[in-house]
């Protein structure tokens, strides 16, 4: 058996220049050269490590500041972009509408231009509440009188239509009994009810309120009934197990669940009521925005007719926005 002897290499001696270096001192240039020959990482001096740590912390702070500034700038740009997307499209739409109106008024001399209509509107709204007689009053009084009729007719429709919708949605027998009548009467034109009102009430003002009532009740009845029918049956089963009274079922279970449907019906009803009052007042006369439009037509004052159209639209928009605010205020979701 043969034995192979391997000679171990002796450790490399350190240069004498570093022999007396105290522990913790920075390595000398000779040690750096040896580390480079052996391809080993050469540690930096302690003072160098401390300066590097401070430099890295400073760089991180500067990077964080740059990132925060970038994020803040992006948020500002996004807010500006969102604001522009909200404001510019309606402005462009209005500008396009006014431009088309101006072009049409150039080809049709009977139609007043936007500038001429604006001048008349400034004059009309400079004194909207004047009184020169029972049939000669400012546009403000006419709008208020129309709103009063709408408020009375719409309020009566809500007092009757919403409870009726709860009853029809809650009880199948009542729903089956009333469905043919509602399906028959709902498509009838609102103005078709005006002669019935004049015959029954013998006066124009109650007849106009009657037309508003009969026209605005159907959306509230139908939407409320549909909302009651879509309440999950599990809720009603729990109420039956707990032996809740019908009043508790309506107030604690049905009303919160039906409220979105009910408010949708109210919004549709107020739009129908404000739409109908103009036509009803044209036929009944008296004081009101509809009568004001018809009177201006008899005077061939087309500018005032256009002003009244815009006034009717603005008031209807405000009523709808008010109801939307009410719907958000009473949202149970």
CATH topology (level 3) name of the largest domain: MetI-like fold
Q: By CATH's scheme, which homologous superfamily of the largest domain applies?
A: MetI-like
Query: What is the number of helical segments per DSSP (H or I, 4+ residues)?
Result: 11
Q: What order do the helices and strands follow?
A: HHHHHHHHHHH
Category by helix and strand content: mainly alpha
The overall pLDDT, averaged over residues, is 81
Please indicate the count of domains: 2
Gyration radius, rounded? 41 Å
CATH class category label of the largest domain: Mainly Alpha
CATH architectural designation of the largest domain: Orthogonal Bundle
Tell me the overall shape: flat
How much strand content do the residues show? under 5%
What is the CA–CA distance across the termini? 93 Å
Counted beta strands: 0
Low-confidence segments: 1-27, 32-47
Largest sheet: none
Helix content: over 70%
Describe the 3D structure:
α4 runs antiparallel to α5 (172-185). The chain has 2 domains: 48-111; 115-329, Orthogonal Bundle (MetI-like fold). It has helices at residues 29-37, 46-107, 114-126, 139-170, 172-185, 194-201, 204-229, 233-241, 246-284, 289-298, 302-329. The chain has 11 helices and no strands.
């Amino acid at each position: 058996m043969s034995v192979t002897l391997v000679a171990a290499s002796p450790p490399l001696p350190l240069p004498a220049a570093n022999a007396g270096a105290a522990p913790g001192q920075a390595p000398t240039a000779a040690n750096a050269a040896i580390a480079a020959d052996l391809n080993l990482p050469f540690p930096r001096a302690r003072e160098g490590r401390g300066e590097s740590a401070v430099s890295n912390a400073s760089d991180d702070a500067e990077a964080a500041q740059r990132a925060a500034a970038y994020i803040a700038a992006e948020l500002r740009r996004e807010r500006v972009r969102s604001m522009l997307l909200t404001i510019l499209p309606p402005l462009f739409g209005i500008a396009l509408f006014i431009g088309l109106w101006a072009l049409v008024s150039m080809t049709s001399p009977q139609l007043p231009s936007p500038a001429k209509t604006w001048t008349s509107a400034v004059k009309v709204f400079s004194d909207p509440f004047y009184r020169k007689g029972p049939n000669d009053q400012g546009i403000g009084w006419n709008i208020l009188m129309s709103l009063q009729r709408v408020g009375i007719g719409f309020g009566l429709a809500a007092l009757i239509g919403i409870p009726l919708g709860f009853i029809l949605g809650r009880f199948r027998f009542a729903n089956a009994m009333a469905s043919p009548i509602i399906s028959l009467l709902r498509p009838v034109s609102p103005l078709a009810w005006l002669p019935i009102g004049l015959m029954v009430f013998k006066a124009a003002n109650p007849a106009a309120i009657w037309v508003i009532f009969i026209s605005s009740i159907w959306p509230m009845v139908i939407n409320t009934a549909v909302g009651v029918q879509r309440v999950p049956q599990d809720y009603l089963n729990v109420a039956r197990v707990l032996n809740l009274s019908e009043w508790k079922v309506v107030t604690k279970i049905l009303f919160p669940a039906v409220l979105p449907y009910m408010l949708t019906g109210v919004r549709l009803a107020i739009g129908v009521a404000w739409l109908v009052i103009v036509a009803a007042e044209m036929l009944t006369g008296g004081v009101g925005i509809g009568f004001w439009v018809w009177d201006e037509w008899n005077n061939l004052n087309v500018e005032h007719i256009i002003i009244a159209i815009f006034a009717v639209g603005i008031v209807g928009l405000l009523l709808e926005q008010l109801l939307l605010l009410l719907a958000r205020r009473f949202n149970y979701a």
